[in-house]
Amino acid sequence: MRIALALGVALALTGCGAKAPLTPLAGTTLPTAPYGAPDKPTAEELLRREALAAPERSVELRRRSEERQDDPFDLPPE
Q1: Integer angstrom CA distances of residue 26 from 29, 41, 59
Q2: Is the distance from CB of 33 to CB of 41 less than 8 angstroms?
Q3: 43 vs 52, 68, 74, CA distance in Å?
Q4: What is the pTM of this model?
Q5: In sequence order, which residues have a C-beta less than 8 Å from that of residue 42 and are 6 or more positions away?
């Protein structure tokens, strides 16, 4: 019974990932153009993140344990 219920909930949630073009709600508009910009950015441009906002992950794996270097900023609380 629990397995069937869990499977039903999982199948119901898979339909929640549908994507549609982003549009402003009825009666609202997108933000105004930034100062000096020739036109207003689209919804997709507003959602695009800069490289500094979402940096690449470092997946460097440690092969063996290493001694930590001394950190001069690791001070005990006062």
Answers
A1: 8, 18, 44
A2: yes
A3: 20, 45, 43
A4: 0.35
A5: 30
Owner of token pair 């549908």: 18
List, in sequence order, the alpha helices (H) in the chain: 2-14, 43-47
The answer to whether 29 and 49 have CB atoms below 8 angstroms apart is no
Cβ 25 vs Cβ 36: under 8 Å = no
Which CA distances in Å does 33 have to 12, 49, 51? 40, 17, 22
Spatial CA neighbour of 41 closest among 24, 54, 26, 53: 24
Average pLDDT of adjacent 10-residue blocks, the chain of 78 residues: 78 66 80 85 82 75 79 86
Q: Cα separation of 32 and 24, whole Å?
A: 13
